Amino acid sequence: MSDARYLVPKATHRIEQVIDRSRFLCTVSRVTSTDEAQAFIRSMNAEFPDATHNCWAYVVGAPGSTDRIGMSDDGEPHGTAGRPMLTVLAHCGIGDIAAVVTRYYGGTKLGTGGLVKAYGGAVQECLTSLPTEMRVDTVVGTFAVGYAHIGAVQQMLPTLEAEIVQQVFAVHAEFTVQLPRERSSELQSLLRNLTRGEMAPIVFRD
Length: 206
Fold this sequence. Notes:
The protein has helices at 34-47, 82-90, 111-128, 150-156, 184-194, and strands at 5-9, 13-19, 22-30, 53-59, 69-72, 97-104, 132-136, 138-145, 163-169, 173-180, 203-205.
């Protein structure tokens, strides 16, 4: 799968489970940076300040990437919460994702294996009903063509998944469009052919 396109959470999503009288609330959200991930974790700590534990894990970037990941057991026995949560996130096929599992202790100890199953299972259960959407890495390009080419350009842009952001009609027809980054060189080539090499290069920006 290209890093330019992958599934991400569409909205913040939460489920609740009760295991041996302990409440487990799993909240999953989209995060596009480690700063956003930490801000999300802080918001969960603020929402559930009286929880026994707020354990967390996140993967920033494409599904399965490991350069920007994090996890915490938040006081649970080492390796029983953050690690199983991260394992689920790393193999779920969804990127830019963070999960916080909030636990309210119910008086019955689950044991090491029980905790691993509870925390990993809470994330897995939340993911089964998580709404997702396709993340597409886009750029904005600006170019100008002669009036004779306007119709052809307007017909061509949808084939490149390009959306018109702005049109200015002056000496030339100037278009500002947003399109997938992976289609930018194709746009440049098609416009060059359309105008027979007469147009200036497209100016792209993020």
